[in-house]
Amino acid sequence: MADVKDPYSILGIKPGASKDDIIKRYDLLLKKYKVNKNGKAAGNEQINIEDIEQAYNMLMGYDFESLADGKLSEDANKPPNPILKKMNVDQKKLSNFIFYYKIPIIIGLFAVLGIFLVLKSIFGYVKPDLKIELVGMYSDSNLDKLEERIKDNISGVKKVNIDPIIFWDKKNPAMESSMEIKFATLSGTGDIDLYLLDKERFDKLLKMSNRVGILDDIAKKYEDQKMNLKVYRSKLEDQTTEHIYGINISDSSFIKGTALEGSDVILCFGNNEADKENRMKLVDLLFKR
Fold first, then answer.
1. In terms of pTM, does the model score above 0.85?
2. Are 255 and 261 spatial neighbours (Cβ–Cβ below 8 Å)?
3. Distance (Å, whole) CA 270 – CA 192
4. Which domain holds residue 19?
5. For residue 111, is it within any domain?
6. Do residue 149 and residue 216 come from a single domain?
């Protein structure tokens, strides 16, 4: 048996070889020297598989003095992982593989996680029963209370999505521009049931084509009930006559105690016709005395 104190000679590599070179050489020797029934390495009677294993273990970080005394280090004496052993997986080689490829493995795990989250968002998405866009200079964007109030008062409504686009800092042009882009993008999707806006954003919305619905019938319904409504009329570019597109709901008792209380709030209809029934139920609540 070859001298275990000279593992480089056994593996046939130069002293100071990298761990990557050691692993490659070890794999090559295992392929070259086929183990026969007596445990000898066929093709070279001077070196057997045990010599190669000891040399490999020594160069991969086991205690040199312990090996010289014929003993393995504490780590080497640990029993193999039973699961890996059952799967016929070399624990040392697996550890080395993880050590050298840990960065690609981590990147791969993050990629898999990202794909999982995207698929979860797609297949786990629940369409809201009402989609409301809140746009304006409002001091508070916490709308949980308003969402809960809507769900509690409209039967069958289980999910309300109120998306706030808050223009809270006019001194920050970049933030202002970002909110304007978001406002223009979301309003153009065509799936907004209702808008709640301040006057400045209401005026801007009217300048965007095909973003709002006509409220003439809504205003007439509540004016017939002798309600003193503050309405906003306009003639859009694609219209030949003037129509009502906004109704002020700042005094609505329904928004009292929520983040909108005390703010200037104008109600507009979006172009989504899929949830007209729920939308009208919410309008009734907003104008209820």
1. no
2. yes
3. 5
4. 7-104
5. no
6. yes
Cα-Cα-Cα-Cα dihedral of 169, 174, 175, 179, to 10°? 120
Q: Within this chain, do residues 79 and 185 fall inside the same structural domain, yes or no? A: no
Classify residue 173 as left (phi > 0), alpha (psi -120 to 50) or beta: alpha
Alpha-helical regions (H) of the chain = 7-11, 19-32, 49-59, 64-68, 74-77, 82-86, 91-100, 102-123, 144-153, 173-187, 199-206, 216-223, 276-286
Please check whether residues 273 and 152 belong to one and the same domain: yes
Q: Is the pLDDT of residue 120 over 70?
A: no
- The answer to whether 162 and 146 have CB atoms below 8 angstroms apart is yes
CATH number of the CATH domain containing 191: 3.40.190.10
Q: Residues 140, 53: one domain?
A: no
| Helices 91-100 and 102-123, axial angle in degrees (round to 10) | 80
Query: What 3-state DSSP class applies to 256?
Result: coil
Q: Which residues pair with 246 in a beta bridge?
A: 232
Q: Kindly report the backbone phi and psi dihedral angles of residue 236, in degrees, each rounded to the nearest multiple of 5, phi listed first.
A: -80, 165
Is 2 part of any domain?
no
Per-residue pLDDT tens digits for 206-222: 998 888 999 999 999 98
Q: Assess whether pLDDT exceeds 90 at residue 142.
A: no
Same domain, 249 and 167: yes
